[in-house]
């Protein structure tokens, strides 16, 4: 066997194991940050991806940034707090591509600072913002599950992936109560949905990013006071002493969207540079 034929055989084996070419994938919150990074990784590997977001302008820019990649991408403006809008987006996706193989319930916001600031402490709780965060992060994730579950059940196969956070697994002084509560709840909802959908061949998992740049999750802190958090990451992130880049979620996204994760469900996968083991409380 020549080196060229060996390389071809290896490439085919990898494609069979972890290939997402042709896979039909929904990504919410895809106009920027983690959602866009996940969509880019999938489209680059040949997947057909529907990007949804309530930000129509940035959604159009996101679509333009994916042109020329191996796969196919489309957009649908949808607010995850509206089950009807999500259902319509999934129906349109199914009409065009015939089904949904994977869905990333990624849309999320953080509207209040952490407990290190008065506005983030108990006495400063803004109940309107509390509800807004839970509506987007928690209701939005569950509505995404609902929007794709029936189609996946009819296919007898599918993978649903929610974006949780290490803030859902431990106390985090840099995030607000509403964000921490929503992410903790998502983790248990993932387990609940995994139990319901497993008999139908549908897997449900969560990824739990630690500190990641390129997102607006830290905006409430920045609004309170200009902070240089680099020394914090140096101390609390063992792997490199830095924030992660959204592109570093590509590997876990491809794994969970592919059939390589066929026996994985109800789990939470940490992508945090070791932050949780270094700062567990």
Overview of this protein structure:
With 281 residues, the protein is α/β, with parallel strands linked by helices. It is 46% helix and 14% strand. The protein contains ten helices and seven strands. It has helices at 3-18, 33-44, 56-65, 83-97, 127-155, 177-197, 219-224, 230-236, 250-257, 275-278; strands at 24-28, 48-53, 72-77, 102-105, 158-163, 202-209, 268-271. Strands 3-2-1-4-5-6-7 form a seven-stranded parallel beta sheet, sandwiched between helices. Strand 4 (102-105), helix 5 (127-155) and strand 5 form a beta-alpha-beta unit. Helix 2 (33-44) crosses helix 9 (250-257) and helix 4 (83-97) runs parallel beside helix 5 (127-155). The longest helix has 29 residues, at 127-155. The mean pLDDT is 92.
Overall shape: it is: globular
Helix/strand order: HEHEHEHEHEHEHHHEH
- Range of strand content: 5-15%
**Quantity of strands, as a count:** 7
Helix content: 40-55%
Radius of gyration computed on alpha carbons: 19 Å
């Amino acid at each position: 066997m020549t080196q060229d034929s060996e390389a071809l055989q290896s490439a085919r084996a990898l494609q069979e194991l972890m290939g997402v070419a042709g896979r039909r994938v929904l990504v919410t919150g895809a106009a920027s940050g983690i959602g866009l990074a996940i969509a880019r990784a999938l489209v680059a590997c040949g997947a057909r991806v529907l990007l949804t977001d309530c930000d129509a302008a940035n959604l159009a820019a996101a679509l333009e940034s994916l042109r020329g990649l191996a796969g196919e991408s489309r957009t649908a403006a949808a607010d995850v707090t509206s089950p009807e809008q999500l259902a319509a987006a999934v129906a349109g996706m199914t009409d065009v591509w015939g089904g949904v193989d994977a869905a990333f319930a990624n849309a999320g916001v953080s509207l209040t600072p952490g407990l290190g600031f008065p506005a983030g402490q108990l006495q400063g709780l803004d109940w309107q913002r509390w509800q807004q965060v839970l509506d987007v992060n928690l209701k939005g994730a569950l509505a995404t599950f609902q929007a794709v579950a029936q189609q996946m059940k009819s296919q007898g196969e599918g993978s649903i992936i929610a974006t949780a956070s290490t803030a859902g697994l431990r106390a985090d002084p840099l995030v607000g109560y509403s964000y921490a509560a929503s992410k903790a709840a998502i983790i248990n909802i993932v387990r609940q949905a995994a139990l319901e959908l497993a008999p139908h061949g549908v897997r449900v998992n969560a990824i739990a990013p630690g500190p990641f740049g390129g997102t607006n999750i830290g905006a409430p802190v920045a609004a309170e006071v200009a902070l240089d958090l680099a020394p914090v990451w140096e101390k609390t992130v063992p792997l490199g002493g830095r924030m992660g880049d959204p592109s570093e979620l590509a590997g876990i996204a491809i794994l969970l969207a592919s059939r390589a994760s066929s026996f994985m469900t109800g789990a939470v996968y940490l992508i945090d540079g070791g932050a949780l083991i270094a700062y567990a409380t």
